[in-house]
# Entry
Amino acid sequence: MTSKITNRIALTVIVLCALVMTATLAALLGYILYHGLSAISLSFLTKDSSSFQAGGGIKNQLWNSFYILFATMLFTVPLGLCGGIYLSEYAKPNKLTQFIRSCVEVLASLPSIVVGMFGLLIFVNYFGWQYSILSGALALTVFNLPVIVRVTEDALQSVPRELREGGLALGVTQWHTIKTIVVPAAFPGILTGIILSAGRVFGESAALLFTAGLSTPNLDFSNWNPMSMTSPLNPFRSAETLSVHIWQVNTAGITPDIQTIANGSSAVLVLCVLGFNLFARMVGKFIDRKLTGKA
# Structure
């Protein structure tokens, strides 16, 4: 009888916690979307931002956010995959491996503001890249790399050991077994983790305040010369992202429609991050159905 009562109490507490988390998330999303959706329009998404006049848009900030995300993942994914493969398949349980894992854990727990200060010191000042897309992408690489390493390692370790032994029993090398058997089997988990981490990077702001800058030129999308300061592809220009733009508007904006711009930008940011999460789940389920042969 006591066990049944304890079980019911535990179940009730767990359900209440789940309801509180769901209600909190729904309230936050509802509040942001309720105030921000009315501000979103084609003009808002395709116009340059304005420092003084009302009616500015977020075209440049939205492009900068996706550009920095692409550059960050370009650095992070290969390094993270290699690191995860090493820790899962090659690293032996010794002091060196323990030290590497400790470094990964420390990097994963660093506040983003600390990563931003590190990027300011190394990439902006020491290398002289100033506030730029490259500095911001490299700072976010430091921020996101341990996530990809851990996601890759966990996905690889979830692959049954029998698959590895079967490949080795056929006489193929360990690397060939990893490349052709283990990684494809773990690919759904790896890809889902990469997409989820992309959503995390897209919404980052603290690290970019000190590395990518608080301003952006009005981009000329007819000029694709990467050396031009108004070119969308120039990696050495300052690049205010959408999340930084929200902070900047709320703290130092002087346009008459500050609240409308902030609400609309917040709604766009939330929808993008939500889209990353939903897309990751859809891709994971799709690949899983293909691999398992389910309809």
